[in-house]
Automatic annotation (TrEMBL), chains A, B:
The keyword Repeat does not apply. It comes from Rhizobium paranaense. InterPro entries: HTH_LacI, LacI/GalR-like_sensor, Lambda_DNA-bd_dom_sf, Peripla_BP_I. One of its GO terms (molecular function) is transcription cis-regulatory region binding. Residues 6-60 form the HTH lacI-type domain. SMART domains: HTH_LACI. This is LacI family transcriptional regulator. It holds the Pfam family Peripla_BP_3. Keywords: DNA-binding, Repressor, Transcription, Transcription regulation.
Length: 347, 347
DNA sequence: GTGATTATTTGGAACGTTCCAAATTTTGTC
DNA sequence: GACAAAATTTGGAACGTTCCAAATAATCAC
């Protein structure tokens, strides 16, 4: 009725108290008498009051908003990561700005700036390729904590949470070697990324430990997508000395590899062993179920959010670098599928 | 330096003008002299000023924030939808709150309330199952436009954008019948949803038109996921009179059906025809490429966002119900794969 | 009942912006 | 150079909250 918006003052008026008291009630302060609290709450419900956080943020400092920007939301890995973040952020009473950069660094800059104007009190970012350490300088200078996930940025003075890519790839190779494979390919991924380098490093290391010579022909870099996987098998099968197994850059590539194998009348898990990386949700239900390095993207999202909230609350912005442990989940696609009850980790 | 935050007043001071002038510059007003504008902008850059939208919103009404809530972000369909929304929202200078409900109606209520407190000026929602028309009443009462996508809610006085489920399923059946199939199953999806009912309706209608008797055994409802697809083939293949083709509730189910077929040594597109629904991004690159009803989730997201922005800007909140046309994209999984150059629509 | 405690409540004064009406400067005309 | 018109600039007064210091009310001990 009056004007439009119902404000604390209207409530105060209707409840016969001062606006300060209403404010106290809103914040759940213990200073206020039980009877008045009840009355105020009743009036609040009655008038359909909605809290105006914008106004509140003007006085307070803590905004109950965090930002999360990912480089490719259409990739299940990042979608799950976002869901993980959402879960903890939501139950902490925060709300998240989420934006997709599509690997565009300009877009990333824009959305981060925009989020900042909107007053985020923290940022989780899976940086677009080519992001520099300086890009988050202004955030951290302003005391806004930043957590980088998935892809690390050398030299950035912010917290990071990445998975143990080296150990993961290494475990995959070790497992395949244990099954008797000698021609093990590394398929998919863009060669000029840190993640690629780390996983390839683990691959080479494990190869060496297993006494298998590294063969440059067996690493075939493609887009880290399903289509890239199809392409990768195609290229690998042109070799004179064909591989009999592959560790893939990620699960999307692995699925593509399976598709490509079948297009050649080879059955993954029978005629050729494939292991993925990430343990995306479909990995378990696919046929054959994908043997993969479990990164638990959702769990990673949750951990990232927890780390961020911790930093927001503690006020101190000291960088913390966490590398998250991974473990190989053996299912059917590697041909060792004895234990079909293997389940994904939910930490 | 001074306190912490740089404000318009600091800028005004440093530039030797009044705060009002700075404000004018910020808004790109044409009232201000070119020379002063330049000076002010220089100072802004120099002092590292960041605009405080929260404060601005206190005075203005339009908040440059929209909310989007989806029921399952881990489903590529919704992830792509969100990306589509993000694209247009971003380039309109807005920023989006995104939340995932995971089909929980309580969570949905919470996040919508929270978004509202944060001052969204519009909401796009793919409602959780069981959402009622009344749930958005308070939003619309406050003049905040709401656009419902994907799943319609009968009786809700808000705009909606859904795909033509009836026509899509119908086209799929017609196509399969045209290829000579008589035992066509309908696989996947929860039976008690509007979308299921619409698609099943299209299926039955097309069956009738093709002169094929409807067989209750051939509709096998399961979860609308990859695992559900696997389950569906399993059940269908137990029938005495087995199907030779299936139209699936969505692409996830269709992929599951392919998996299940292969687990039975049947090759999709050769021994059994499968057509999906949605045209998720992987549909094109999967092997065999999936014949599916193209819903173009990203395009739908874009359209929803455009519709919402239009309503926000025009100020009038009159509901508009759009049913988005779909078209069958014939690829390989239906066995008619002659034209391999079929491409997805990007409107 | 009195003074001291403790428990509640309460008016401003912020916070950083935008808006309005009015003031000032510049430009143009004769 | 005086006057009008146009262009530019500018002080408050909002916006809806939270804080603070201080006021008031309730309770206690004697």
């Amino acid at each position: 009725m009056n004007k439009g918006r119902v404000t604390v003052i209207d409530i105060a008026h209707a409840a016969g108290v001062s606006k300060s008291t209403v404010s106290l009630v809103l914040q759940g302060s213990s200073l206020v008498n039980e009877a008045t609290r009840a009355k105020v709450n009743a009036v609040i419900r009655e008038l359909g009051y909605v809290y105006n956080r914008g106004a509140a943020n003007l006085r307070q400092a803590k905004s109950k908003i965090v930002g999360i920007v990912v480089n490719d939301l259409t990739n299940s890995f990042f979608a799950e990561l976002a869901v993980g973040v959402d879960m903890v952020v939501q139950s902490a009473g925060y709300v998240q700005f989420l934006s997709n950069t599509g690997e565009s660094i300009d877009r990333q800059r824009e959305v981060v700036a925009s989020m900042r104007e909107h007053g985020i009190s923290g940022l989780i970012v899976s940086p677009a390729r080519g992001t520099e350490a300086a890009d988050f300088k202004s955030l951290t200078n302003a005391g806004i904590p930043v957590v980088i996930v998935v892809r690390n940025i050398p030299g950035a003075k912010v917290s990071s949470l990445v998975s143990d890519n080296f150990a993961g790839a290494s475990a995959a190779v070790e497992h395949l070697a244990g099954l008797g494979h000698r021609r093990i390919a590394f398929m998919g991924g863009f060669a000029n990324t840190a993640v690629f380098a780390e996983r390839l490093g683990g691959y080479r290391d494990a190869l060496a430990k297993a006494g298998i010579a590294f063969d440059d022909d067996l690493v075939v870099a493609t887009a880290p997508s399903r289509a890239g996987g199809v392409e990768a098998v195609g290229r690998a099968m042109l070799l004179a000395n064909k591989p009999t197994a592959a560790v893939c850059f990620n699960d999307a590539v692995a699925f593509g590899v399976c598709d490509g194998l079948r297009a050649r009348r080879l059955e993954p898990g029978v005629d050729f062993a494939v292991v993925g990386f990430d343990d995306v949700i479909e990995a378990e239900s696919a046929v054959p179920a994908l043997t993969t390095v479990s990164v638990d993207p959702q769990g990673m999202g949750r951990r990232a959010a927890q780390l961020l909230l911790k930093q927001i609350n503690s006020g101190k912005v000291e960088a913390e670098a966490i590398v998250s442990a991974v473990r190989l989940v053996v299912r059917q696609s590697c041909g060792a599928g004895l234990d079909t009850t293997a389940r994904r980790v939910v930490s």
